[in-house]
């Protein structure tokens, strides 16, 4: 049963249901409400009643205990559960869906064809790969429409993700390389910052100061790259005087194979993403 009477004031065509509004789903819901979306037109289901009630109390959204009821209530359904649980969830809600519904999946590694196989044929399916900076409104997402999705469906998903950062439409065959850059990319950045902090400590800096220096340097450099007119190469060259300190440091990074290591890491991530997708297809076929 729904935990509250569903809002009748919002037309069904404008209603969103987040099934599995955990970390990422909850982040998007909060971003939408902050951006001015009518909270009465947003429903959530979660694994735990306490989290569901918390979202309802803090954001004013509709809280449902039943996935099928939430799906029947909404026009657009966002799937935010773990990939291993997604297909069973689609099977559960499938009887409530039809040609007027759009299903947006946040599940990594599940193709639109696989998702569509667990839904009525006319349901529109869109796949989204978000990343964790969405939690601070600085996310980057790739959006791909399935066979039945329209341009309007893709744009709707982009609008959805724009509440917590930026989003771009890409062909689905680029989802694996996108995962390797923006999906997993934050971990690469954090690993580099960890190494930079440790190097600062080794040079005698207090850990707190080394952390502040590295963090603010990352933030400032990202803003220069995002807001300035210079290319990343021009920005690097502007810091690098011939024969200077930065040149000496970059030479060490080159000697230790930084660029080839990054290439190999991205290739390994994209390959693993494709492997996981293939494994999901094979498991579903059994």
From TrEMBL:
Residues 172-276 form the Pyrroline-5-carboxylate reductase dimerisation domain. Residues 15-109 form the Pyrroline-5-carboxylate reductase catalytic N-terminal domain. NADPH binds at residue 67. Signal peptide: none annotated. One of its GO terms (cellular component) is cytoplasm. Its EC number is 1.5.1.2. Pfam families: F420_oxidored (PF03807), P5CR_dimer (PF14748). It is an enzyme of class 1 (oxidoreductase). Keywords: Amino-acid biosynthesis, Cytoplasm, NADP, Oxidoreductase, Proline biosynthesis. Pathway: Amino-acid biosynthesis; L-proline biosynthesis; L-proline from L-glutamate 5-semialdehyde: step 1/1. Its main location: cytoplasm. NADP(+) binds at residues 19-24, 46. It comes from the Bacteria. It catalyses: L-proline + NADP(+) = (S)-1-pyrroline-5-carboxylate + NADPH + 2 H(+); L-proline + NAD(+) = (S)-1-pyrroline-5-carboxylate + NADH + 2 H(+). InterPro entries: 6-PGluconate_DH-like_C_sf, NAD(P)-bd_dom_sf, P5C_Rdtase_cat_N, P5CR_dimer, Pyrroline-COOH_reductase. Belongs to the pyrroline-5-carboxylate reductase family. PANTHER family: PYRROLINE-5-CARBOXYLATE REDUCTASE (PTHR11645), PYRROLINE-5-CARBOXYLATE REDUCTASE 3 (PTHR11645:SF0). This is Pyrroline-5-carboxylate reductase. It comes from Propionibacterium freudenreichii. The lineage of its organism: Bacteria, Bacillati, Actinomycetota, Actinomycetes, Propionibacteriales.
């Amino acid at each position: 049963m729904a935990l509250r009477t569903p809002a009748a004031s919002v037309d069904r065509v404008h209603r969103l249901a987040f099934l599995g509004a955990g970390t990422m789903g909850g982040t998007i819901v909060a971003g939408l409400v902050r951006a001015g979306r009518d909270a009465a037109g947003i429903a959530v289901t979660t694994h735990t009643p306490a989290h569901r009630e918390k979202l309802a109390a803090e954001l004013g959204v509709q809280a449902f205990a039943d996935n099928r009821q939430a799906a029947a209530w909404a026009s657009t359904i966002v799937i935010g559960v773990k990939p291993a649980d997604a297909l069973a969830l689609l099977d559960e809600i499938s009887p409530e869906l039809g040609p007027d519904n759009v299903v947006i999946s946040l599940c990594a590694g599940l193709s639109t064809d696989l998702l569509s196989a667990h839904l009525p044929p006319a349901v529109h399916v869109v796949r989204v790969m978000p990343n964790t900076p969405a939690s601070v409104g600085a996310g980057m997402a790739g959006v791909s429409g399935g066979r039945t999705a329209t341009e309007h469906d893709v744009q709707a998903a982009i609008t959805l993700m724009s509440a917590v950062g930026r989003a771009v439409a890409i062909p689905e065959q680029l989802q694996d390389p996108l995962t390797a850059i923006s999906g997993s990319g934050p971990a690469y950045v954090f690993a580099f910052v960890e190494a930079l902090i440790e190097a600062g400590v080794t040079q005698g800096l207090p850990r707190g100061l080394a952390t502040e220096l590295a963090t603010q340097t990352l933030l400032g450099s990202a803003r220069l790259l995002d807001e300035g007119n210079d290319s990343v190469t021009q920005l690097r060259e502007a810091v690098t005087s011939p024969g200077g300190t930065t040149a000496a440091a970059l030479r060490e990074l080159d000697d230790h194979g930084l660029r080839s290591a990054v290439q190999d890491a991205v290739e390994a991530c994209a390959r693993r993403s494709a492997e996981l997708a293939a494994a999901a297809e094979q498991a579903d076929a059994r």
